[in-house]
Amino acid sequence: MSLLLYHARVDQIRNLTHDVREIGLRLTDPAEIRFKAGQFVSFDVPHPTLPRPATRAYSIASPPSQKGRITLLLNLIPGGPGSTYLFGLKEGDETQFKGPAGSFYLKEDGQRDLLFVASEVLQVALGYLNALMAQSLLKTVDRAARPQPLYRVQMAQVVEPEPFEGVVSLCNRPHQPTEHAGHRAIVLAIVVEEQGRVT
Fold this sequence. Notes:
By secondary structure, the protein is α+β, with helices and mostly antiparallel strands.
């Protein structure tokens, strides 16, 4: 199945941390996109050492119900062509991407409780969570390599309504012993510890 080419205008930029940004893209042509939670879109961006553009994929963080607009959540990778391009966009700028793509998405008829383990940038998890507000999610484990209190607030807002049970916050490499009040361990250890409470 060939991917569609979408034209969009940047309608919102939010700097969540010094190197994490949320970008809102308003579709202009076509005016809507239909996708499933967990799918992604791809940008062809300039590459400093290649004679052709490089393709970079970014998960859609907004829910599928927002057909006229998508949200991307990404971190700046030093020297990375994709994040460098997207971080260079300003509100009002025009851009284009292809999509949607990806087969790892939520099944609409799923009946199981779900456990999500998300890394520093929560694009995929937020896309799933925003689409699961009316379904059952027992526990989320958020792994951050460094403490980022903003994510704690953001995740709390997402999972505040029922039937979400809550968020387990984990930092595996705190800079200072007092920086993080939650778990300090690798993800697998916390999943094993928590599984008795989420199954």
